[in-house]
Inverse folding.
């Protein structure tokens, strides 16, 4: 056994085998170094090393490496990194740094856009919800019922001085307006006040004292005649004492009392379209009120005010003269 080992030693120390022995020793040292440094470090490959090829394929610039500047994170790079500078394998590669540096420039914008869009949508949702909660369904309005037509009366009279002749006939007054003074506003003897209920008669206030002759009814009584009431077709003669002492006679004829259904506008015109001159005349003489009569809701229609026995006597006097 000793002789065998001695022969091997002699063979190894032979000058021709020295290069081979040196090569074997280098291989042995390399194996020991690999086992001690490369094989013992089984650290996982960082994510940057895995994404390195994808970054290069996407068109991003990659660093040019040489055997002197080669970096590696796997054990297979030990041979090329033998003469290069060592580095920490957990430090991201330059490409990964560029990627991570570029990422913050886009991420905040997208996040801000997302947050703004979410806030906008949230505000729209909240506003729509608040609007829907504050809005109450409106009740459908019922169709407006057409207003009923109102009754309007039209009175036509003849009035003038006697005697009547072809040269001085009675003056016709068609569709007499309320509070119209007759024969004129400059020489007012009577003032038209309206019609009684149902258009049965027309009532006139006496502005000056007169002696009456005819079927007309005096109100409130024959002895205290402040107004005269005439039916359609009736006439009344009025005698006045002039300033010279002469007696002047006038005749009043109620030609017709007609009624019609008018619109609301026409009804208001008839109700408020009274003569201003007649109103001022009645006011200056204290004759605004009609004894025991007042206006009803119908335009120009007078009704009796129930005030005791005196009003009843006035009503009976009107009926008596109206027969």
């Amino acid at each position: 056994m000793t002789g065998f080992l001695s022969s091997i030693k002699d063979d190894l120390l032979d000058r021709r085998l020295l290069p081979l022995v040196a090569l074997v020793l280098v291989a042995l040292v390399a194996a020991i170094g690999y086992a001690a440094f490369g094989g013992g470090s089984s650290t996982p490959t960082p994510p940057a090393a895995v994404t390195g090829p994808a970054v290069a394929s996407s068109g991003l610039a990659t660093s040019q490496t040489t055997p002197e500047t080669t970096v590696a994170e796997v054990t297979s790079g030990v041979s090329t990194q033998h003469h290069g500078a060592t580095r920490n394998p957990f430090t991201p590669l330059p490409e990964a740094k560029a990627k991570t540096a570029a990422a913050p420039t886009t991420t905040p914008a997208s996040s801000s856009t997302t947050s703004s869009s979410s806030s906008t949508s949230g505000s729209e949702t909240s506003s729509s919800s608040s609007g829907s909660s504050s809005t109450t369904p409106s009740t459908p309005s019922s169709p407006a019922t057409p207003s009923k037509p109102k009754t309007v009366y039209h009175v036509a009279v003849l009035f003038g001085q006697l005697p009547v002749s072809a040269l001085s006939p009675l003056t016709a007054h068609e569709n007499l307006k309320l509070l119209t003074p007759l024969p004129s506003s400059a020489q007012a003897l009577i003032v038209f006040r309206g019609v009684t209920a149902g258009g049965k008669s027309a009532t006139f206030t006496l502005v000056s004292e007169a002696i009456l002759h005819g079927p007309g009814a005096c109100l409130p009584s024959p002895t205290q005649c402040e107004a005269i009431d005439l039916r359609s077709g009736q006439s009344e003669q009025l005698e006045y004492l002039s300033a010279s002492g002469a007696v002047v006679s006038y005749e009043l004829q109620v030609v017709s009392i007609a009624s019609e259904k008018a619109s609301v506008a026409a009804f208001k015109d008839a109700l408020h379209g009274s003569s201003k001159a007649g109103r001022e005349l009645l006011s200056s003489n204290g004759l605004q009120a009609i004894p025991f009569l007042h206006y009803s809701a119908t335009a120009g229609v007078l009704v009796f005010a129930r005030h005791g026995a005196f009003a009843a006597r006035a009503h009976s006097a009107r009926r008596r003269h109206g027969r």
Summary: The helical segments are 2-12, 18-38, 47-57, 94-134, 264-272, 276-285, 308-322. The first helix runs from residue 2 to 12. Confidence is low (pLDDT under 50) at residues 48-63, 106-123, 125-134, 308-312. The chain is about 35% helix and 25% strand.
